[in-house]
Amino acid sequence: MALTLKKILKLPFFYGASVVAGENGLDSTIESVNVMVKLPHQESASPDIATWLCRGQLLFTTEHVILSNHRVLSAFIHQMSEAGCAGMIIKASHHISPLPKTMLSASSTLQMPIAVLPNEKGLGDMMSQVMSILLNEKQVELERTFEIHRKFSKLFLNGATMSDIAQTLTSVVHHPILITNSKRTMVGWSASARSWAVSEEFREELLQFIVNQSPTENSLSYYKTTSGERLGVYPIHSSGNLKGYIIVMHTDETLKTLLMPLEQAAQVIALESVKQAALMEGSNRLREEFFSELLDNGYTSVQEIMKRGEKYGLQSKGTYWVAVCQVDSSLDGRISFPFNSRDYEYLQEQIQAYLDAKHMNAITTVKGDHIVIILTSNDLSVSQQEGRLIQLLQSALSHLRKSNDNHLFSIGLSNHADQLDRLARAYQEAVLALKHAHDSRSSTSVHAYRVQQVPDLIRMLPYHKLREFCSSILKSIAFPKSDENIELLQTLDVYLQQNCNVKETARVLFLHRNTVFYRLNKCESLLQLSFKDPVDLLKLQMAVMIHHILKSHEIQAEHTLS
C-alpha cells in the first residue's frame, strides 16, 4: 500500500500533529523526503525550488524558516504544487505563531497539505521515521518483485501456455486477464475471463479498439465497452516490435500501482512469442514460398493451387484482387527509414489485423520489398467492389501512418481476377500500377491499375473463353501441329500486320507473291471467312492476338515447371 501523509500523522511519533491547510491532499503518495533549513533566494519574489524538490516528496522544515520568509510563501506553495510534492510538515514550538493567511489559502486551493507538529522531536528523527517506513515498503516491494519474477520465470522454463500465464497474473493483480498475439487473436485467458474470451461480440469490440491504438511501450490505456465494462490494455513489446496485448478486466485507478506485474508478465509473453515464432518459422517459410511461387505464375491449374493453398485461406470461388503495399522513397530517393525482414513482417501483421477488423476476406504475405494482399469478395458488382476496396485500402494506409510515425506508404491495386490462376497476372498489374503512379508522380496513395493496351483488356477475360474464341475463328490452325498449318498461321499473322498488303507480306516472309496468294486463299477456304469483309478481318485480328497471348502464357508455364 502507498505511504501517505494521512498514514504518517497516525503514527505515535507524530502524536499531536495537526493539519492546518490542504486537507484534501492528504492521500498523495510519498516517495521520498527532504528538509529545508532556509528558503532559497529568500528575498526573491519567486523562489526557485524546482531543482531540488521532486514528485512525491515530503518536505520537513521549521517554524522559523516559514515565518522569516512570509512574503514569498504563496509562490513557494505554488512551486511545490507544480513539482508534485506530497506535502509539508513544520516543526514548531509548543506555542506556534499563526501561519501567514496567503500561505494557508494557497495550500487549500492547491490541495497541498501542511501539518504542524509542536513537540520536542528533531527534524532528523522525523525524517528517520518516514525513511524507515519508505525503505521497509521498498524492501517488501522488491521481495514481491522477485517472487513474481520467479513465478513467471518458472512458467517460461516449464513451457507454460498463455492461459497459464494469464491465470498466474490474475492471482497477482486480482483481475481477470486476457492475452492476444500480434495478430490481435485471443491466445490465452484466466478462468475468470473465460466468458469474455468466448464472446464473439466482446472480441469484435476489443479488436476494433486495439487495432486503432498506437501502442506505447510500458504504458497502460483504458477502454470502456458498450456494456459498461472498464478494461486496461497493456502492450507487449520485444525488440521494439509489438507482440500482443494484456487485457485486464474490471479495472480501476489502483491498476496503475500494479504495472510491475504487468511488465513481468509482458516480458515472459514476449519471450514465449519469440520461442513460438522460431517453432513456426519452418511452416511460415513454406507458406511464403507457396505464395511467392503462386504470384510468379508457378502453378498452371486451379486444382493444384487449391490443393496447396486452401490451408492458407484461399477460396475456390469468388472475385479476386491483388494489392501491393510498399514503403515509398522520400524526395531525395532514399527510403524513409531502413527496413529488414522483421519490419516487413510486423507491417504485414498490422495490415492483416486491420483488414480482419473490417471483416475483409484478406490474405497477406511478404514478397521481396512488397507486402502483398490477396482480397476475395463474393458480393456487389465489380465496379462497386473496386470503389469499396480503394476506400478500405486508403483507410488502412492512414492507420499504418498513424502507427508508424513519419513513414510513407503507397498501394497498387490490380484489376479483378475471376480465377485463382490469374492471381499472378493480377500481381503484375498491382506492381505496374505502383510503377505508373510513381512515374507520373501521382499524389494519391492508392493506385488502381488501368488497361494500357488492347492485350491488357484481353487478358482480363477467362482463359477458357479466350481459347474457345481462338479455336472457333482459326479452327485447325489455332494451335497448329503440322508444318503446313504453322506456315498458314504465320502467313496470316504477317498479312494482318502488314495491313493486308500482299507485296509487303511476301517481302517480310521472303516468298513469291503467288505463294502468299495461295496460302491466303487456302486460309479463306479453311476458315470460311473473307479477307475483304471488315468484320471478318476484325475477328481474325482478335483471334491471332489471342493466339499469341495464349502461347506466351503456355511458354511461361512450361518454363516455370522446368
List unreliable stretches of 5+ residues.
330-336
Estimate the strand proportion.
15-25%
Find the CATH topology of the largest domain.
Answer: Alpha-Beta Plaits
Broad structural category = alpha/beta
Computed over alpha carbons, the radius of gyration is: 38 Å
The profile of the biggest β sheet is: 5 strands, mixed
Widest β-sheet, arrangement of strands: 1-5-4-3-2
Q: How many domains is the backbone divided into?
A: 4
Describe the SSE topology.
Elements: H1 5-8, E1 18-21, E2 32-36, E3 57-62, H2 63-67, H3 73-83, E4 87-91, H4 101-110, E5 114-117, H5 123-157, H6 162-173, E6 177-181, E7 186-189, H7 194-197, H8 200-210, E8 221-224, E9 230-238, E10 241-248, H9 259-295, H10 302-309, E11 319-327, H11 341-357, E12 361-367, E13 370-377, H12 382-403, E14 409-413, H13 423-439, E15 446-448, H14 454-459, H15 463-474, H16 483-497, H17 502-509, H18 513-527, H19 534-561
Parallel strand pairs: 2-3, 3-4, 4-5, 14-15
Antiparallel strand pairs: 1-5, 6-7, 6-10, 8-9, 9-10, 11-13, 11-14, 12-13
Explain what you see.
The chain has 562 residues and is α/β, with parallel strands linked by helices. It has four domains: 5-133, 3-Layer(aba) Sandwich (Udp-n-acetylmuramoylalanyl-d-glutamate--2,6- Diaminopimelate Ligase, Chain: A, domain 1), CATH 3.40.1390; 159-277, Beta-Lactamase (2-Layer Sandwich), CATH 3.30.450.40; 296-450, Alpha-Beta Plaits, CATH 3.30.70.270; 463-561, Orthogonal Bundle (Arc Repressor Mutant, subunit A). Helix content is 49%, strand content 15%. It is built from 19 helices and 15 strands. The chain has helices at residues 5-8, 63-67, 73-83, 101-110, 123-157, 162-173, 194-197, 200-210, 259-295, 302-309, 341-357, 382-403, 423-439, 454-459, 463-474, 483-497, 502-509, 513-527, 534-561, and strands at 18-21, 32-36, 57-62, 87-91, 114-117, 177-181, 186-189, 221-224, 230-238, 241-248, 319-327, 361-367, 370-377, 409-413, 446-448. The protein has a five-stranded mixed sheet with strand order 1-5-4-3-2. The protein has a five-stranded antiparallel sheet with strand order 7-6-10-9-8. The protein is elongated, with a radius of gyration of 38 Å. Residues 302-435 form the CdaR GGDEF-like domain. Residues 8-133 form the Purine catabolism PurC-like domain.
